[in-house]
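2024-03-11 09:14:02 DEBUG pipeline.ingest accepted 1 chain
2024-03-11 09:14:02 DEBUG pipeline.ingest length=399
2024-03-11 09:14:03 DEBUG pipeline.predict start
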Amino acid sequence: MISNLPRDLAEEVLSKLPVTSLRGVRSTCKKWNNLSKNRSFVMKHIAKAKAAAKNYHRKEFQVVMMIQYRVCLFSVNLLNPSIDSIGKLISLDDADRVDISKVFHCDGLLLCITKDRSSLVVWNPCSGQTRWIKPRNSYHILLDRYALGYEWKNKYSLRSYKVLRFLDNYDSSVNVKRLLREFEIYDLDSDSWKVVDVNPDWDIQYHQRGVSLMGNTYWFSQEKPPPLVPGEVGGDISDIPDFLLCFDFTTERFGPRLPLPFHAFYGDTVTLSSVREKHLAVLFQQCGAYTVKIWISSKIEPNAVSWNKLFLAVDMKPLTGFQFLVSGGSFFVDEKKKVAVILDKDRGKRRPTRNIAYIIGKKGYYKQVDLGESIDAGCWPLVCSYVPSSVQIKQAAPP
């Protein structure tokens, strides 16, 4: 039987399998389950996956998508446009019964927020390691924002992974509005939360998803409007300063306001994405104007950013006839092929609604790829780049 192969030969054969096949490998027999968790095997498997991912001229590449509360690996071919599910990544604990509502990527690790927003888990899909994180007091179901990053521990590039949780909103669930402000960091090394003192003069909308680059997380942010004076009519909130904001996980501080290559008004769509985990891409679509514009940074640091000239501009009115919603528009770009892939829903007359990948490029290039039925109208498809990682998730000490 193939399960009786010598260890060296079995390791060589199994290391050629895609990451999504490891779930089946581990359920085949106890011997293969132990082998697939061996560090030698994991390193060999990851080295081959990274070599394939760095092939810049490849026809296909892989991304992680969250669709219908499931996290899956997809193969993307932009020459003959197709986006195909390769399969589920290695299971979370009881993954077939765990619904995920948000996913964030950093250095090969995923931070997953459960659908009921009551639990967090840091997950290495390649090794199958997970770390469920208990709240310091409790999680706020509706208003929490999260980010995953790391601190550079020393000159040998050892990294300490951390989770940022924050909320800064008025709670409208009570008769008298009260300010909820909590900023705290969970350190995976020490298995502990600590409170961070932040008094922000900026606001990050709940639907904005931060993007991690080189251990730090960036958000589209706006200046916080002044508080209303009782009896006075509120001022115009449609035209307030906007900027890029970074949280530095090494200093555990938010950086200065960084410039954007545009100015957004209320109702405009703005989303962020990473490019080869070295640069930041920003998508902007003005409300009612339909044209999608995308820029890519030439330099990005917690305290400084500069932008290349406009990467792509496409008028979507004759193509889709609608604006990507502010809560949608998750995207990624292929620099070489000069195209962008934007995930959203089909908001035409078809019922039921479908999840769609809109592929746009220069000179009117436009394709659609159907990603399947959208069962839950409130679940927007999300995408992030992914390269398998050998990072070992430090486990919490037993109580």
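2024-03-11 09:14:41 DEBUG pipeline.report The first strand starts at residue 60 and ends at 67.
2024-03-11 09:14:41 DEBUG pipeline.predict end
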